[in-house]
Every structure is written in structure tokens, then in C-alpha cells.
UniProtKB/TrEMBL annotation, chains A, B:
InterPro entries: Alpha/beta_knot_MTases, MRM3-like_sub_bind, Ribosomal_eL30-like_sf, rRNA_Methyltransferase, SpoU_MeTrfase, SpoU_subst-bd, tRNA_m1G_MTases_N. PANTHER family: RRNA METHYLTRANSFERASE 3 (PTHR43191), RRNA METHYLTRANSFERASE 3, MITOCHONDRIAL (PTHR43191:SF2). GO terms for cellular component: cytoplasm. Belongs to the class IV-like SAM-binding methyltransferase superfamily. RNA methyltransferase TrmH family. GO terms for biological process: methylation; RNA processing. One of its GO terms (molecular function) is RNA binding. This is RNA 2-O ribose methyltransferase substrate binding domain-containing protein. Keywords: Methyltransferase, Transferase. Pfam families: MRM3-like_sub_bind (PF22435), SpoU_methylase (PF00588). Residues 31-107 form the RNA 2-O ribose methyltransferase substrate binding domain. The lineage of its organism: Bacteria, Pseudomonadati, Gemmatimonadota, Gemmatimonadia, Gemmatimonadales.
Length: 269, 269
């Protein structure tokens, strides 16, 4: 539905403000940019406060289909100039559309059966964090935990990089104290990747605990002290000697894939 | 060694020119940017034509160590202003250093034993291609083949994303006709990832041919027709139903890891 003039001004101002983490934390809102991301947002159960669109969006079928989805959900639509859209966008190419939506409230539920968590220990690069979240969702992880030092997962670059995974996969930002308590209460074993660890291919299904949290950290920086003290096992991905490390999203993909294969073979045996 | 004034002007002009693919193809030279990348370049056997550096590089130990490495290799050093460096750089943060180096001549050698190739079928995103090459090197792939439609692998963003892997891992850009002939002559079996393929965890060591080329393509775009016609088997990475696809670098990591594990278990049995 077309928004009134005052709503239009407010939505543009709000979207610009939400570029800052503090504003997102105060407003419980975030910005999603680009066609694919906004399509997935509109298909998700998340509450969408409004869309900023440019006239160019009506020029092709995909843009018109997106507008129809928004109309069907009764999401307020505000038409702005390319320059206004760019002023609220974090990426260079918002593709004529930007949405403001509510950050869903998410907590870690005590697991009733087997559970897999991915734990981000001070992961800073937003593109990597987005890809990591997309990977965790694809590999069927129960939830992803973002510990302090990790980029705000509602940053527009993370939202875009997650390719919609953030809209359904639970990602919880929490302090080490709170997560440490959860790990203890829920009986979660924490593992991490480390060059000195057990080679990943020799981890058998019998080694995999029912409730496992896999910690990944910044390349080079290593684990933060609290986390390192709580980790009970380290594993490593065998690599050619000329290569020092893998990209963190690639390493996460391999770790989660290998653990998924090991766990499913334990269920079938 | 400090360069003469005319060398200085020439190197800066050359570096700017090398931002274009055509210039790289004509000059057989490329640009490497940033501390880590230039460190790895200087540690590699590649011929380095010269370094552009800013005064700020001398301000810390790491910068001074890099300059010492360059002096030891008798690489011409040209001091430029921050603005001049930025004018020749592709990335936003060249960190005070940029190198011009020779593109190594690389061909596919006929394999004498087992071999693994990674085949990039029209992969366009330079960041992804850099990460994919780094991953291929880490997973011990024999060589990576970049088919037409793939971004020039000597693009500065690919060079940076490969984290030095391009300096030792052979990456060969070739036409489908040339690669198709190589595949036939060398007895390489081509596999690709596809949702309709065999689930990856059920691929056994007995299934893996001695010489295997794993094809990865642009998400969404699928294989190009020539390649599709030559592929003899497709495999897929099992994923949660809510997720459509993985990032191509993550998918490549999982595919190469799983094939490596399958092959090594066949060698040990």
C-alpha cells in the first residue's frame, strides 16, 4: 500500500539511522537490501515495517512481482529517488529496493534431543559471517551463537551475505557468561578447529557427542581465553603444506559437513 | 634498491594500466596489493618487476621487514604518495604497498599418476574465485582450470582473495576446446555438482576415478553446454530443505574435502 507523506519521510530517516549498530539495537529493526534478499524477507514470517523502492523497480517482471508480494502482505511502500535509496543503503547496488524489518527475538531453547551449535568467536568480517550463517543453515545446525567481538549479524552486509538464512535460521548474540551457562546446563560439548587437533577424517561417529558446539574464530587471532578454556577437543582439516589456512566460511563448511556425515552414520548404525 | 626517476614514473603508469585485463594479457604482468599478499609474492619464485610503496610503510616493523625482503631480492622500490598508490590500486586499502610481477607461464602437464583438477566453469565473482583457488591449493588439487566466462585470475581482487595460493598453485586459463582435448588424452573423468546428483557422502573410494576433474559453476547459472555434455557423473551436497544453495567457495571446499578423504581411504585399503 502507498504510504502517506509523513510515513515516507520517517521510513527513509529510519533506514538511514539503521546503518548504525546502536540504532538497530535501540529500534529492534534492520535493513535488508537488494532484490533476492527482499524477496526472501517477504517470503519469511518476519514483520516488515516498509519498503523503499525506486521507479526503476517497476520496469521488469521480477520487480513487479516483488511489489505484488509486498502489496499482498500490506507492507507500506515508499517511492524514493535513486540518490535517496543510495543514502540509506550499505551496499553499492541495492537494486532499487530496501526493506526495514523487525529483528526477531531469539533465544537458545534447552535441547530435548541431539543438537548442533555453531559458535562464532569474534568473527569480524561481515561477508564471511553472512556466508557462515548461510552454511550453518544449509548444514542443518540447530542454532548459531555469535559471541562478543563478532560483527552485528543484523548489519546489512551480513544480512545480504546470508542469502536469507538469517530469516529462518536462529542466530543468537550472547555474552560468554550466558553461553557458558547454557553449555553447562544443556550438556553441550565444545569443539574447535586447531592445527594441533585430531585430523577431521579420523573423527568417527562414536566420537561425536549428542550435543556439540563447533567454535570457529578469526583466522590468525585464535580463540578468546574463556572459550579456549571450555573447549574439550580440537580437530583440524588436513591441508597441503604450502597453505597456511582456509577461508573461515570454507573451513566452517567442511567442519559442519564432516560432523553431519559422522552423526548421520552413527544414527544409522 | 631505489629506482631512478624514469623507472618510477614507468612503474606507476604500468601498475595503473594493469588494472585492465587487456593490459595484463599484453604485458604478461599483474598487480599484487597489500602487506600479506606482497609478502607471499616476495617469498615465491615469481619474478617481481618492482614495488610501489608509501612513506608510511617504513613506520612499523612489518613494513620494514617487507622492504628488507625486497632489497634482498634486488626488487626496484618506488616511493609514491598515498594518492598515487590509490590511483593504481584496485582495493580500498593497499596498506602502503603494491607490487608489479610477471604472470607465470603455466600449462597442464599430462599426468603420470593420479590427478585431481578443479574446473571453474564461468565463475565470475573475483572474491569467490580467489577463495576457490586458495581452497584448491589447500586440498592438494593438481591444477585449477579456468574456462571461458571465468574472471581473469590475475585480477587484483582474485590475487588478493587467493592469499598467495596463485603464486604456487597452478591455475591455467584455457578454452573448452583445449581442455576437452586434454581431458580425452589424459583420461580425466569430469564430475559436477548438481541437485539431481548422487549424495556426496555415499560416494565411495571405489567410485573415485584415478584422474578426476571436479567442475564448479556459477550459482544459479548452471553448467555451460560443452561442459555439461562431457560430465559423466553429478554429485550433490545434502542440505536442509530451507536452503537453496551454498556459496560456491564453501561448496568447492566440501566437494574437494570429501573427494580427498574418499581417495586417501582407497589408497590405504
Amino acid at each position: 500500500m502507498p504510504a502517506s507523506d509523513s510515513t515516507a519521510v520517517k521510513l527513509l530517516t529510519l533506514a538511514r539511522d539503521l546503518q548504525r549498530r546502536k540504532a538497530r539495537e535501540r529500534q529492534y529493526r534492520f535493513v535488508a537490501e537488494g532484490l533476492r534478499t527482499v524477496e526472501m524477507l517477504l517470503a519469511s514470517p518476519l514483520e516488515v515495517a516498509g519498503l523503499l523502492v525506486t521507479a526503476s523497480l517497476r520496469e521488469d517482471d521480477r520487480g513487479r512481482a516483488l511489489l505484488a508480494m509486498a502489496e499482498a502482505r500490506e507492507v507500506p511502500l515508499v517511492e524514493v529517488s535513486e540518490a535517496e535509496l543510495a543514502s540509506a543503503a550499505d551496499t553499492e547496488t541495492p537494486q532499487g529496493v530496501l526493506a526495514v524489518a523487525a529483528i526477531p527475538e531469539r533465544r537458545l531453547a534447552p535441547p530435548s534431543g541431539p543438537a548442533r551449535y555453531l559458535v562464532l568467536d569474534a568473527l569480524q568480517d561481515p561477508g564471511n559471517v553472512g556466508t557462515v550463517i548461510r552454511t550453518a543453515a544449509a548444514m542443518g545446525v540447530t542454532a548459531t551463537v555469535a559471541l562478543p567481538g563478532t560483527v552485528d549479524v543484523w548489519n546489512a552486509k551480513v544480512v545480504r551475505g546470508s542469502m536469507g538464512a538469517l530469516f529462518h535460521h536462529p542466530v543468537v548474540m550472547m555474552s560468554w557468561e550466558d553461553f557458558g551457562r547454557f553449555v553447562e546446563t544443556a550438556g553441550v560439548e565444545l569443539w574447535a578447529a586447531d592445527l594441533a587437533g585430531v585430523p577431521l577424517p579420523s573423527v568417527s561417529s562414536a566420537d561425536c557427542p549428542e550435543r556439540l558446539g563447533m567454535v570457529v574464530s578469526n583466522e590468525g587471532a585464535g580463540l578468546s581465553p574463556h572459550v579456549a578454556a571450555a573447549v574439550t577437543r580440537t580437530v583440524h582439516i588436513p591441508m597441503a603444506p604450502e597453505v597456511e589456512s582456509l577461508n573461515v566460511a570454507v573451513a566452517t563448511g567442511i567442519l559442519l559437513y564432516a560432523l553431519r556425515v559422522a552423526s548421520s552414520s552413527s544414527q544409522s548404525s
